[in-house]
Structure formats: C-alpha cells, structure tokens
Amino acid sequence: MADELNVSRQYIHKVIRLLPSNSQPKKVDNKYIVDTKSEKQIKKYMETSHSTKSTRKPRKQVDTVEGLQQDRIEDLKEQNNFYRDQIKELQKRLENSQKLIDQEQQLHLSDQKRIEKLEQPEKQNNPTSKETEEETTDNQPEEQPKKSFFKRLFSSK
C-alpha cells in the first residue's frame, strides 16, 4: 500500500494511528490486516491531508552529512522546546511552593500570637516564682544571726 501511494511505511503507520479507533485496521502479530473499509479511510485521509510531494527521502540525501546534521538540529530543537516547557512548569511549582511556605509562616506567627495572648492572663493571675520568693521573705521576720555557744552562755539578756 505504501508503494501504491508513494509514501513510506512509517507514514502509513502514522496515518493508521491518526484514524479513529473504529476505522483502524486490526493488528495481528504486529501486522495490520487492512480491509477495504480501512484502506478507503487511509486513502481518504491521504487525499485530504497529504501533500503532493513524496514523503520518502532518497537514500543518498539521508546518508549525507548535511541530511544527518539537519535531522540532529531538528531533534535538538525538539529537546530544547521540551526542556523549556519543563523549566516553565518547574518555575510554576516553585512559585506555588513559595506561596505555601509564606502561608505556613503567617499561620505559625498568628498561632504564636494567640498562644502569647492565652498565656498573658495566666501570668497576671499566677505570679512568677521569683515574685513569690520575694513575697515570702518579706512576710517572715528577720532572723538574728546565730551566736556562738559561749556567747549565748555568758551573754546577758
């Protein structure tokens, strides 16, 4: 069929893949069984979308250095476009992650402020340990320094 239409086999496979699934020929043992219905569909597609020039490349052109370089350039352009798309997607992800981090930090800050507000009334109601120690020392009478045994014995009161 490829020879009849003057195109490559690969192009026929491409056309078959582009056809709707109900119009595609059946595949048995990695070979297509083309019936008249699918053949008509392929030819119809070829008439509407295929240009008049042949898709087959002469063998000499493919083997030349220039042809190989052109193929390589096309591959590199495709890779370049693919990588650009990936970079754009990654940049979007990064921006989204940054937004999420900012939101998380803001939530953390607001939680800290709430905790401080909740702890503030407790501090006012319950004095700290240093304050309680000062109050207890103020309430107790001052103790006199201890006198030695002999001073107590011989001292006059």
Q: Taking strands numbered 1, 2, ... along the chain, how are they ordered across the largest sheet?
A: 1-2
Name the beta content range.
Answer: under 5%
Number of strands: 2
How many strands, what sense, and barrel or not for the largest sheet?
2 strands, antiparallel
Helix/strand/pairing category: mainly alpha
The global form is: rod-shaped
Detail the poorly predicted runs.
none
The whole-number mean of residue pLDDT values reads 76
Number of helices: 7
User: Percent range for helical residues?
Assistant: over 70%
Question: How would you characterize the overall build of this protein?
Answer:
- The chain has 157 residues and is mainly α.
- 71% of the residues lie in helices and 4% in strands.
- It is built from seven helices and two strands.
What's the topology here?
Blueprint (H helix, E strand, L loop, with lengths): L1 H4 L3 H10 L7 E3 L2 E3 L2 H14 L9 H5 L1 H61 L3 H11 L9 H6 L3
Antiparallel strand pairs: 1-2
Give a short summary of the structure.
This protein is mainly α and 157 residues long. The chain contains seven helices and two strands.
Keywords:
single chain; 157 residues; mainly alpha; two-stranded antiparallel ribbon; 71% helix; 4% strand; rod-shaped
